[in-house]
Amino acid sequence: MLRMLRGPVNTSYTWKIMISFVLVLLIPVTLSAVFIYIRSVQYVEDQSKTALKEALAKEKENVHQIFNDYRKLGSQIAQYPLLISYFDDLYMSDTNKIDFSYHYLNSFMDWVRSLETTEYHFRFFTANDNTFQNEWIYHSKPYGNEAWFEEAIQATYSAPYWENLHKARILDYDKVKNPAIRDQEISLFVPMLSYTTNDRNTLLEIFIAPDAIFGGLGKMEEFKQGAVFVYDSVGQLVYESNHHPAGVLSQLSSQLNKAEQSTSNFVTKVGSQSFLTEIQTLENPNYRIIGMFPQNLVIQETTKARNTFVVCLVAALILMILISYVFSRKLMKKIKRLVKVMRSVQKGNLNTQVVIEGNDEIDELGKDFNRMLNRINELIETVYKTEILQKDALLKALENQVNPHFLYNTLETIKMMAEINREREISDALTSLGAMVRYNLTKDNRLVLITEEIEQIRSYCSLQNLMMNGRLELVCSIAEQIYSLKMLKLILQPIVENAILHGFRNFDGQCVIKISAEVYQNNIRFTICDNGNGIEPGKLRALRERLENNHKNRLSPGENGIGLSNVNDRLKLAYGSCYGIEIESEMREGTRIYISIPVID
């Protein structure tokens, strides 16, 4: 491994493939796993926060309903007509008071006693000193200068007033004076209006134990393993569950100072433990209900899933390494086999082939290499046979060039004798024959101008016309710019010769041969057509097969190279397999031959 890190260029291809596979798979899988884990933890936390929020919001509504119930109770008591009449009569005699109390007030107090519990009590503070004082009725004058009473008077001017948590006020007639029973209370003050003066001459106080209002919070299942706290509008702790961890209150107080006054949530840290904290705000009266739940319990299930996933990830990594190793070995086997064949070819063995066992990219490379070897062998064979044909052509040319001046002089002498004897046709024939011989024997180069090739055909047709009594007509439709291009010598003349010898055999009408040429896609396409007999379908098919076979099996040195096969082979050898001859023919309609060659300036 250290060697691979120091010199990655010299590392074996097998290890490179293995490392690439592992990295390509491991990095995305690891990143995906981390992302999924973070998202799952966040999802679980969000779901837990939502559940805690909904549970606390539901309990907040219960607390709000309790406050409303006490407010309704206070309104019912404060609006009781007999009580208002009793506190409104400033001149009632003691006898009437006793009689009123016996007949009316006692029945009302019996109903009040049935409502009272150890969780809440009530009493009246009246400005009417003409009333009897007892555990429920107190004269307000002795308390007029006390702050709590002044605040209650001012706050209840138009509506009931909730006093924040305060130390229990033990008065003279209270039956329950034990501080252990009555420690802290929350008071509701409700004004009672006089029928005669429409003034608030009496205050109803309902003092309630905090557990009577908030006790249900400590019974919430969602916070059994956490804690619940209630703070009033001045930041005073009103209620706390009896199972909260040590140190929570001090830490929570600092967090509350930073938190918003509205509903919010945050994480509270107490030592090494973190708590999801949810705040619900209660209005009129203003309280903040705070629920705390251990964060480690929220992600406990996620932690188990994470551990399971880590084990699966490690197992998957080992499996990926094994699979990549086996796969790379198999892949390298193909590559090594291909390299072995290449080295064999490098040493000169062109008859070897790559063994193909599949259809993947390495196998495609092997197929291409095999095709390349086959093409090289074909080119070698083509070059070899071309050289043989060139040597044969050179020998024939040397044989034909034996003393050409003697042949020229002889033809010239015969021509002059014909002119002396006024044999014009013989003189013209000798002129055409001389031009043909000169073209065949003096043009040693393989390439000639197209105009020279056409002139050669004109000379040949002029000779043939002597035997055909002038029935042969040659029509050339070739653009001027094509005449200046070059082509192989003796390509068109054998085609015209075949048309005369075979197409016009036993043909009585006017014999017409048309030669045209056009340039397309950097190629020249010649069309030689006649109006002769045409070729029978069977013979046409055999002729096409012979042309194709002659291209694959070259003519042996002893065979005659003149004709369609010779022209077709010379074209393919000189220009490539995409060039050659195409034949179309119909009986009694004539024959059409197409020859394609590249444009050569």
From TrEMBL:
EC annotation from Swiss-Prot or TrEMBL: 2.7.13.3
Keyword Disulfide bond: no
HAMP domain location: 329-381
Reactions this protein catalyses: ATP + protein L-histidine = ADP + protein N-phospho-L-histidine
Pfam families: HAMP (PF00672), HATPase_c (PF02518), His_kinase (PF06580)
InterPro entries: Bact_2-comp_sensor_kinase, HAMP_dom, HATPase_C_sf, HATPase_dom, His_kinase_dom, Sig_transdc_His_kin_internal
EC class name: transferase
CDD domains linked: HAMP
Localization per Swiss-Prot or TrEMBL: Cell membrane
Membrane topology: Multi-pass membrane protein
Main subcellular location of this protein, as a coarse class: membrane
Residue span(s) of domain Histidine kinase: 488-601
UniProt xrefs under SMART domains: HAMP, HATPase_c
Entries under Gene3D superfamilies matching the protein: 6.10.340.10, Histidine kinase-like ATPase, C-terminal domain
Protein's name in the database: histidine kinase
Naturally occurring in which organism (per UniProt): Paenibacillus odorifer
